[in-house]
Specification:
The chain is of the alpha/beta class. A hairpin with a 6-residue loop joins β8 and β9. The longest helix has 45 residues, at 112-156.
């Protein structure tokens, strides 16, 4: 390394520290060092020395390494921390890594230290870059929120002053800027008269006004933006000589600013000035978005003046710029009239974006809005002149295709739309795999008016979703029966809880070493007087598409806790009961409170409840996920990752999740005895779980061969039809009374 590395040793042995320094010098690592032995000196050197790296013994006479780690992470969270010790064992090493240590090296292996340092520094730099990128994404999200708010204001507000006032308020509230104001120019001058403001003003505008009263024109950034009709930025107010009222700004903690000219037909009508509490806020992407913001306000001002904005909003979708339902009905009616005159065919395609709600719920509405804008452009790019695409709902679009020669021609266009929609899409929130389901109705075969064609295209779209999504279906008469059935099930499901139609079945989870039942998974079932037993596949997805999953999820939680406590009160072995938590439930901010209430009402110790979360749930908005998980950890509730291996878990995040178990998905377990790939994946998951100190449970175990394989790989627990199908409460009680499955020990010993 060329630069001198500042290293702080937490070490009571000067000789050991010297040996480590020599190892670094042999590796050509230039370093400046200091050594401390106690907490007081450690805190002092963290402030004075500001080390680039900390190397600590695990055990010291007056101190301990884990305490040093906690202090260092509190004071300098980004500084790499390496344990070098002769006493650390595997369990303590894992504890140290989970607590934030970068690595550990045994004192009898000093040759590893230079490589460990270089690796820790690289990882620390990667983390810094990632944090910087996350901060940038956060800033961009805020500006997107401002843009969204401005667009909403444009829709609602017809008065210029009200629009100015709302724009300033939105910039401060959603963009979290320090202050924002809009000024209009004096006649024949570049001096700005404030007309609206919001945020931390504290007399700033009064001070500026007094100073401007002494001059004919404003020579500062606001005046220059007005004069040149261009965006001007001061990313560091303290050092930027163009900022005239520097002291007044710095006194109010304004560190950077931007001046956005608002133009109507290329005439400067106002300037929007925004101040941030941090320097270097406005770079290329932010500037582009802020320019778009100014453009949106300018656009609104133009149509406020001409009273044309309302007409536009009556026929176009604000977010995407596509025709809305009103204009769609006009275009479709025109297409039908043309077909009647020319005796030709037209097609109506109803498009629904697959899994958009997951993106919107997990990544936020700003990312969702970006996604919709980009996918709208993509869909529109697949069409011919004369075709129409309209946005008719949150993630729903309708395409009108006049002048269709036959169904083959229609199919080609629809396949082009499907192919385009399924290509990965990059937005501010990252890369997304998009797809859509499409239903097609033909004029005159499937209907002779706009309402009927739209209804039948919608029915065909639902059939496409039921067929696996990312596909399309032409309308057929029997689809109406399917739609009616879906509506019937959804309607009855809404009353299932109040009519006591839901019940739980339980599937045992077995310790692979003892054969004893250590837990059960609670699985919701539905018995309707008219429909009979409704398979979970028919109603769970419906519930997840609506708020019903929240009500059903809470019912399952309460019922499972109460049943587990009832078994314990009968003197049966204390076991854990597992409850599946959907993505929508987990994003519900009140879930920890709902869970706590269920435990309290049942008088069940939290350690006997486990929540199962899928990979797709935990890998979206990781910081929020960890915060929610930590609440459950503090309550004492166990957490596990369900269907592990089917998602896209980042191992660097996985070790940060406070989970106790990984569940191997049954798709891997099914063929482990015959498929080398599934066997290898399953074995790797077990090793990974154990390396992180987690229990591993395999689901879907149905054969003795699968059981033998899992035992040989030291899997901890199993679940599946080999032991039992999901069973009723009384049957589960009998099984608990029998003390599990003693034949497991016979099979695996």
């Amino acid at each position: 390394m060329e630069a001198t590395l500042k290293i702080l040793f937490v070490e009571d042995s000067a000789a050991d520290a010297e040996l480590e320094i020599r190892a670094l010098k042999r590796a050509s690592i230039a370093c400046a060092t200091r050594r401390v032995e106690n907490e007081i000196d450690l805190r002092k050197q963290l402030v004075e020395f500001r080390p680039d790296l900390i190397i600590s013994d695990f055990s010291l006479p007056m101190f301990d390494g884990l305490s040093a780690l906690r202090i260092a992470k509190a004071e300098q969270p980004d500084t790499p921390f390496i344990f070098v010790s002769g006493t650390i064992g595997e369990e303590r090493a894992i504890e140290a890594l989970k607590s934030g240590a970068s690595d550990y090296v045994l004192k009898n292996s000093p040759a590893r230290l230079p490589q460990a340092i270089l690796r820790a520094l690289r990882e620390a730099e990667d983390i810094k870059l990632r944090k910087k990128q996350e901060q940038k994404i956060t800033r961009l999200s805020r500006i997107h929120a401002v843009l969204s708010g401005i667009n909403s204001a444009v829709v609602r507000i017809r008065d210029r002053k009200a629009l100015f006032h709302e724009a300033c308020a939105i910039a401060v509230k959603f963009g979290q800027f320090r202050m924002a104001w809009i000024g209009v120019p004096e006649l024949h001058s570049t001096k700005l008269i404030p007309v609206s403001w919001n945020g931390f003003n504290e007399g700033y505008l009064d001070d500026v006004g007094l100073e401007l009263a002494k001059v004919a024109n404003d020579p500062g950034i606001g005046g220059q933006a007005l004069l040149r009709k261009t965006v001007i930025v001061a990313n560091d107010i303290e050092s930027d000589e163009r900022v005239i009222f520097k002291q007044q700004a710095l006194a109010r903690d304004y560190r950077s600013m931007i001046a956005l000219p608002l133009l109507v037909e290329d005439k400067d009508v106002a300037v929007f000035l925004i101040y941030a509490a941090d320097a270097n806020i406005f770079d290329g992407e932010e500037l582009s978005l802020m320019g778009e913001l100014a453009g949106d306000i300018s656009y609104a001002l133009e149509y406020i003046e001409k009273e044309e904005r309302l007409n536009y909003l009556a026929y176009f979708d604000v977010l995407t710029g596509l025709p809305n339902r009103n204009l769609l009905n006009d275009r479709l009616t025109q297409a039908i009239s043309h077909c009647k005159r020319t005796n030709s065919m037209a097609a109506v395609a109803f498009i629904d974006l697959d899994h958009f709600k997951l993106i919107n719920d997990s990544m936020g509405h700003n990312v969702g809005d970006d996604f919709l804008k980009l996918i709208s452009k993509r869909l529109a790019g697949c069409l011919r002149d004369g075709d129409t695409i309209a946005r008719v709902g949150g993630d729903e679009f309708v395409v009108v295709l006049p002048r269709q020669m036959d169904t083959d021609a229609t199919t080609q266009i629809i396949q082009r739309i499907l192919a385009s929609a399924s290509e990965p899409l990059n937005s501010a929130g990252g890369e997304f795999n998009s797809a859509c389901s499409i239903g097609v109705a033909l004029y005159p075969r499937d209907g002779e008016d706009a309402e009927t064609l739209l209804k039948h295209a919608d029915a065909a779209m639902y059939r496409a979703k039921e067929s696996g999504r990312n596909t399309f279906k032409f309308y057929a008469e029997e689809m109406n029966v399917k739609i009616k059935e879906r509506l019937l099930i959804e309607g009855k499901l809404r009353h299932a809880i109040e009519r006591d139609e839901l019940f739980l079945n339980y599937q045992p989870q077995v310790d692979l070493h003892t054969g004893k039942i250590i837990g059960v998974e609670a699985l919701v079932r539905w018995r309707n007087p008219e429909l009979g037993i409704v398979p979970p596949a028919r109603f769970i997805s419906l519930a997840e598409e609506s708020d019903l999953i929240l009500l059903i999820g809470e019912w399952v939680m309460r019922k499972a806790c109460a049943q587990n406590k009832a078994w314990q009160d009968l003197g049966l072995p204390a076991i854990t009961i597992s409850v599946n938590v959907s993505s929508r439930q987990f994003r519900q901010v009140t879930l920890p409170e709902v869970t706590a209430a269920a435990l309290k009402d049942a008088a069940l110790d939290p350690k006997y409840l486990e929540l199962e979360l899928t990979e797709s749930v935990v890998m979206n908005n990781v910081a929020e996920v960890i915060a929610t998980m930590s609440k459950f950890q503090a309550m004492g509730v166990e957490l596990s990752i369900d269907d592990f291996g089917t998602g896209y878990s980042s191992l660097s995040y996985l070790k940060r999740f406070p989970v106790s178990r990984l569940k191997v998905d049954q798709s891997f377990v099914r063929d482990i005895a015959t498929d080398p790939d599934d066997a290898a994946i399953t074995g790797a998951i077990i090793l990974l779980g154990h390396s992180l100190g987690l229990k591993v449970i395999a689901e879907g175990v149905e054969t003795e061969e699968q059981l033998t394989f899992l035992r040989a790989r030291e899997c901890d627990e199993v679940q599946g039809y080999y032991f039992s199908k999901p069973m009723a409460c009384d049957d589960m009680r009998s099984l608990l009374e029998s003390n599990g499955f003693p034949m497991v020990k016979t099979l695996v010993t």
